[in-house]
Design a protein that fits this description.
Blueprint: E1 2-4, E2 12-14, E3 25-29, E4 44-48, E5 59-61, E6 69-73, E7 84-91, E8 94-103, E9 108-110, E10 119-121, E11 133-136, E12 142-144, E13 151-152, H1 154-161, E14 167-169, E15 183-184, E16 186-188, E17 194-198, H2 207-210, E18 231-232, E19 262-266, E20 281-283, E21 294-296, E22 307-311, E23 318-319, E24 324-326, E25 332-336, E26 343-347, E27 358-359, E28 364-368, E29 375-378, E30 390-393, E31 398-407, E32 410-419, E33 431-432, E34 442-449, E35 452-460, E36 466-478, E37 483-487, E38 490-496, E39 504-511, E40 517-519, E41 525-529, E42 535-537, E43 555-561, E44 577-578, E45 590-596, E46 600-608, E47 613-622, E48 625-631, E49 639-647, E50 650-658
Length: about 650
């Protein structure tokens, strides 16, 4: 990746995200790509590493040739008003592109039209979707601020470098080279010992190498061979973490297959040297990144209702919605050890706490079989940006709503999604509410279908009449026998309806204890007392266990559908509209809905109060319909921002407030 110094001088920095061998040759052109060749009016530099370069090291071009830098094609000159750099290997006449960055008044990346002074085609092999093509719309005189992050997987680092808000601005005429280095790998943090669901971008006998920065025990090759083992794999046949233990994590021991997940208990004291917290640490693994399609399980299949423990096989984020799913439910489940209250989070293709179904590098996840002979296939094309933004249209016949529950220091969230495959009872897109790996005091929001506890209840997108679903809120403590005990406690619940489909015309919540009813379309918050109704085991007999239904649910949610919805048709908006962002103020995200009466090229930008462009959210042609975009700011300070939507000659502006 390249981080420009954009100060009117020709110096810049680049960071290799893989180790470079000595005599590796890389070219840097301040030039445009016309679709078949580099333009001939600018120049190219040739970099040759004099020795090996570690991934994450900062390599700087000082502004003039010499040493490792040579002039390949005269004319390399970064314009003071902005420019672009294309990075490639091979040769200028036959390039294999690695990266591209444009900034200020320099190159705009295009996929069609004519190449002019200030634009360039996006070459084959790099893309804006994974931040290997970057467009910084910022003014001149700026440099990446390393305080905004220098650690993480490759995809995270590329994302950080691509954000306008992560750069410093001042009136200096010259920025010196960046100092220090970047850590390429998975950062493990935490203030207490905890479980982690993990995977590896490299297959083979890699456990010892990958986990070298963490404390391991109870296995050959571990820091201590005594004690209980703290690394486990999941036995698909027996649905257990204990029936097929990992006994050897040395370089000649147990092998991890591509796409296989594993579980580790992370000790904050990584060297057994006392009661100190040594986290965070950065995990990395040597070897060749997995490539090609990866099928899980690698042999056999997932039986009906059985669980498989998969993992992201690449060093880039993958999009669960793009993964080929055969005879499995549509949901992926991840254990979130760093949440305020550690719990499983999920995504069913339309809703859930696993943000937009993006599964990070080094992340393991559960998937459940449905119908027998189940499997998933993860392809390199399933890789996604970690930008955390999401575009969807209501014309896709999907929608969702969420309930956020809080009580004191504890919080939870539960979802209702709306899809064409939805049913009033259990269907393939329902996501279970899973019992935690470690029981602790908490508040829980949960719906039920056919007696099954759900994190996401999937309902039809269109339906005749109304559907009632049980919605329970429980405040739980843990007794000496490791049971969850339900308690009376004051709880506040609010709901997000920003992605509610237009087919829903009524939402009524009835408290089954008091008989009180609440119209969710007229208010957005409710405070009440939970019910004490006994206890239940905080554990189960299997590797994955579901919350049971405990007595009568606190609420019944009545979902009323419009008469139009049963006809299967959705009307288009009659005029352009930018709706109020929800929530606002917000943290960590807000959803911005807008209506388009006709197809057209749309831009949606976010500016700070000085008028500086902070981020471009949408820059593409969209069809007529109801659209929404969820914005997750990264490394921005609290304050007032302006969202501007441009659709043809129509311009909307809206103030939103980000609170950290």
């Amino acid at each position: 990746m390249v981080t420009v110094n954009a100060d009117g001088n020709d110096n810049f920095d680049f960071v290799p995200l893989v180790d470079l061998a000595a005599n590796t040759v890389i070219y840097f052109a301040d030039n445009a790509w016309d679709g078949s060749a580099l333009k001939s009016n600018e120049g190219t530099l040739e970099y040759t590493s004099s020795s090996s370069v570690s991934a994450g090291a900062i390599v700087s071009y000082p502004g003039s040739a010499g040493g490792e830098w040579a002039i390949e094609d005269a004319g390399f000159l970064i314009a003071a008003t902005g420019d672009n750099i294309l990075v490639f290997q091979g040769s200028p006449s036959d390039p294999t592109f690695i990266y591209g960055i444009g900034w200020a008044l320099g190159t705009v990346w295009i996929s069609e039209g004519d190449v002019s002074t200030h634009n360039s085609y996006i070459p084959s092999g790099i893309s804006t979707s994974d931040n290997t093509v970057v467009q910084l719309g910022t003014s001149d005189n700026y440099q990446y601020d390393t305080d905004n992050g220098t650690s993480g997987p490759k995809s995270t680092l590329r994302y950080l470098i691509a954000q306008n808000g992560n750069y410093n601005f001042h009136n200096s005429n010259y920025f010196s080279a960046l100092s220090g280095s970047f850590d390429v790998g998975q950062v493990i943090s935490g203030s207490s010992d905890h479980f982690r669901m993990m995977s590896s971008p490299v297959a083979g006998r890699i456990y010892g190498d990958l986990l070298d920065e963490l404390w391991t025990q109870g296995m050959t090759g571990a820091d201590a061979t005594s004690g209980d083992a703290n690394v486990w794999k999941f036995d698909l046949a027996n649905q257990s973490f204990t029936t097929d233990p990992i006994e050897d994590i040395s370089s000649s021991g147990e092998s991890l297959t591509a796409g296989q997940g594993f579980l580790i208990y992370v000790y904050t004291n990584t060297d057994n040297s006392g009661a100190t917290n040594d986290l965070p640490v950065t995990l990395s693994v040597a070897g060749t990144e997995n490539s090609g399609n990866v099928t899980v399980p690698s042999s056999g299949s997932i039986a009906d209702d059985a669980w498989a423990f998969a993992g992201n096989p690449y060093a880039s984020t993958i999009d669960w919605g793009l993964v080929t799913q055969s005879n499995v439910t549509t949901s992926a489940y991840v254990w979130d050890s760093q949440a305020g209250t550690p719990a499983y989070i999920s995504w069913n293709g339309s809703a859930g706490s696993l943000t937009n179904g993006l599964i990070a590098p080094y992340q393991g996840f559960f998937v459940q079989g449905s119908g027998g002979s189940g499997s998933i296939t993860i392809a390199e094309a399933n890789k996604s940006s970690t930008a955390g933004t999401f575009y969807k249209t209501m014309n896709d016949s999907t929608g969702s709503m969420s309930f956020s529950i809080s009580s004191g220091d504890y919080s939870d969230i539960t979802f209702v999604s709306f899809m064409n495959n939805g049913e009033g009872g259990i269907d393939n897109a329902d996501a279970y509410k899973l019992l935690p790996m470690t029981a602790s005091e908490r508040v829980v929001g949960i719906s039920y279908a056919d007696g099954n506890g759900l994190d996401i209840s999937n309902l039809p997108y269109t339906h005749d009449g109304a559907i009632d679903i049980p919605l329970d809120i429980m405040y739980l403590t843990v007794d000496a026998d490791y049971n969850f005990v339900t308690n009376e406690n004051e709880v506040t619940m609010n709901w997000d309806l920003s992605s509610l489909p237009e087919t829903i015309i009524g939402l009524t919540l009835t408290n089954n204890t008091t008989g009180e009813t609440t119209d969710l379309l007229q208010t957005d918050e409710l405070t009440f007392i939970t019910t004490a109704k006994g206890s239940f085991p905080a554990y189960g007999s299997n590797g994955v266990n579901i919350y049971p239904e405990v007595g009568e649910s606190q609420f019944t949610l009545a979902v009323a559908y419009s008469a139009l919805s049963s006809g299967g048709e959705s009307t288009f908006p009659t005029k352009y509209a930018l709706h109020k962002a929800f929530p606002n103020p917000f943290n960590p995200s807000t959803t911005i809905r807008f209506d388009l009466p006709e197809e057209g090229f749309i831009t949606m930008n976010v500016y700070d109060v000085t008028g500086r462009l902070v981020e471009t959210l949408v820059n593409m042609t969209l069809p007529a319909g109801y659209h929404s975009h969820t914005w997750y700011p990264v490394s921005l300070s609290s304050g007032l921002y302006i969202v501007q939507l441009k659709a043809g000659e129509t311009v909307f502006n809206q103030k939103i407030t980000f609170i950290k």
